[in-house]
Amino acid sequence: MVDSQPDASFAAVQTTFSQGWQVYDKILQHDYMDHQQVYGILRSHYQSLTAPFDLLELGCGDASQSVLALNGSLIRSYRGVDLSAVALQLAEAHVSQLRVPVLLQVGELLNYLQTCRDRFDQILVAFALHHLSAEQKQAFWKAAAQCLRTGGQLLLVDVFRLPNESREQYLDRYQQFMVSQWSAMTATEQDFINAHIRQSDFPETDASMRDWAVAAGFTDLDCLYFGNADTQRIWRCSLPKTAKGLG
Fold it and tell me: Which residue ranges does the record assign to the Methyltransferase domain (predicted)?
């Protein structure tokens, strides 16, 4: 069931999502962002968990890829949060395949984390965190740690800048990669994507993100994947299995 209504301040993002849905679907069809490999790795992680887990997915979209990774796992409940009510309506049919309690809510990921009073064993954030500012990302790590149970894990799939690479250098490099490799995209579609990333993408370096994660209390940070022209990572970030002060 989809709960709540989108905040008016997110109307522009909603419009962009609707306009870009067909473009995004084409990216998926041609696997230009390595979704098959990325979600295959996520599937391996979730299938390896030996205890039932409650999962929160932030920026879940239509959840089609996530469901493929979660099917057959010991997932106990699924909660999905996204800015787009349209995407969540599509997600309803997909997450029903999991046959577990489901809650889908419209919201912005950082605000949701900071106001959520529930705790989860697993948090998944895929291709969403790079839209936040540096200050917001730091706040995200702190809020995520508060929303995880002892020993909980956050899986982050996102784009990153190389060491000493500026945002402009990253954007130019990504555009060159897109033009040279994404041959099925029309010039209009590439212009749409380029305009979107130049307006909305603010990737960080590994070092910055690692520092913020550690400061928030994450102790084990494993890179499970590094690819797509050196732009994408999967991080598995774990909290200590023993609560602080309990030995």
Answer: 56-152
